[in-house]
Predict the structure.
Amino acid sequence: MTIAALSMLLAFTVNANAQLKGMTDLEAGHLKGKVKEVNEYDVYEQKYLHADTLAEYQRRGLKPPYMKRELRKTTTFNSDGYIDTEKEYGSFGQTIKHTYKKPGYFLKSTYFNENGEYRGDYSFFYDDKGLLTHAVKILDGDTIFTEIYEQKPEERIISFDHINNGVSSYKMVIEYYPCGRMKRMLNIKGGMVNQDIQLDENSLPTKVTRVDFEGKVHRTAVTRGKDKNTSVVYLTDANGKESIEQRSEETLDKYGNTVTLKRMDADGNIKESEENTYSYDPQGNWTVWIRNNTKRGEERKERTISYY
């Protein structure tokens, strides 16, 4: 597992409840300043244009727009740094409106389809002490899942069972530093830990142990520096012998964003590499991101950001 993949893993593994992350949504999204709204765009080349469209541009003496800028998502934040509304565009777009019990503690997330029609809620429930007890997600009249929470504030631990159709599909146990940031996260399936993530006090992964579907153990160790990160993935075979599976090396700019990334095999041969260039606004948030990857080619993303 590479360094970039570890960050994505955390984003998908932990649900949106900031109470579980120990940081604001702005911090989790690496956004600087008092951000109010972010519009995200995909910019890509249109290799084919309809003949009628081409003819109309030619008739007007204009150059066809082979580069298309498409709005993908709009996120608004409240003044406390937490997400207020998320709107995704496209054929299966949706809008999610979040309401809070207090900053960082969800009451519910309300879902609407691409036409603005109500679909359902992801609701959170608390006891008299203000501790999270359970959550339920209902869309289009169906219960998608239920989560049963157990909090141990004195031990700085929170756990929850994720239940589908009355059956526990997995259990998550999260341990915290005194500062409130995540320290360790365990994902448990079938009574066995299949993922163990250890983090530093900035909630960045330093060690990840993962058991795949074949029962093989993959252990990722990350070494972080000011402008360079390295990671090594070790594989343990059925006999308990550990060997290097792959390596990765990442250089960073002054804002902490990836400039170059190399993925290598056990012998150090480069399997994949990429270069990233950015344009930044005065707050230090990127507004243009161009990534050139040896496997996926060039990708370009743009953002417009407004502030309070």
Summary: Confidence is low (pLDDT under 50) at residues 8-16. The radius of gyration is 22 Å. The longest strand covers residues 35-45.
